[in-house]
Amino acid sequence: MPHPMRWAALAAAGALAAVTATVTLSDRAEAGRPLARAVLHDAAGTRLGTVTFTGTGHHADRVDVDLDLPADAPNPDSYHGLHVHAVGECTPPFTTAGGHWNLDPHATHGHHTGDLASVLVQPDGRVSARSETHRFDVDQLFDADGSAVILHVDADNFGNVPIAPDRYADPNGWYDAPGGTAATGDAGGRYGCGVVERR
């Protein structure tokens, strides 16, 4: 029978292994530090707040959104699309930020590298959200033309249905909704923009 001290050492090693095995993405993000941040402004130059990428080394595990939109902001009390866009330039109406940041040329919307969780704007304009991610190697956000975070005016349905006038047509004739889902998820216009900067 092993010596009592050996039993204690084995038990301690087992406990350490159990703890190590249960380290989650949340644990890594909590242990991390801010790696990058975008300060968003609207087209009038009003500061809306921040989107912060937190993690360890060069990998961001968490995205924190902290915004306070003005009273005249569109669509309060609703969800708004939020994406990292491919160019770090925020000249209104923010089309200068290019399309969605995407490292996989075969990925469609909802799977773009820069697709983030939509955020709920409260009736008073406040936005507070946290999401976890495995997509962000922060160094890649700082390529030759940088990147930006865009807050859209509408909800993102994360769809990618090709443009066609009858794509939402009901074969029974009960409804026929024109427009609808494009390759960017119908998140609408670009309300806020912030260039991603290192922390």
Write a structural description.
The protein has 199 residues and is an alpha+beta fold. The chain is 15% helix and 33% strand. A seven-stranded antiparallel β-sheet has the order 5-8-9-1-2-3-7. A two-stranded antiparallel sheet has the order 4-6. The longest helix is centred in the N-terminal third of the chain and has 18 residues, at 4-21. It is globular, with a radius of gyration of 22 Å. Residues 4-23 and 173-180 have low confidence and may be disordered.
Helices, strands, pairings?
Layout (H helix, E strand, L loop, with lengths): L3 H18 L3 H7 L1 E10 L4 E10 L2 E10 L9 E3 L1 E4 L33 E3 L4 E12 H4 L6 E5 L37 E9 L1
Antiparallel strand pairs: 1-2, 1-9, 2-3, 3-7, 4-6, 5-8, 8-9
Mean pLDDT: 81
What would you call the shape? globular
Helix-strand pattern: HHEEEEEEEHEE
Beta strand %: 25-35%
Tally of helical runs? 3
> Unreliable runs, pLDDT <50, ≥5 residues?
4-23, 173-180
Biggest sheet overview: 7 strands, antiparallel
Approximate helicity band: 10-25%
| SSE class | alpha+beta
Distance between the termini: 56 Å
Radius of gyration (Å): 22 Å
Arrangement of strands in the largest sheet: 5-8-9-1-2-3-7
Total beta strands: 9
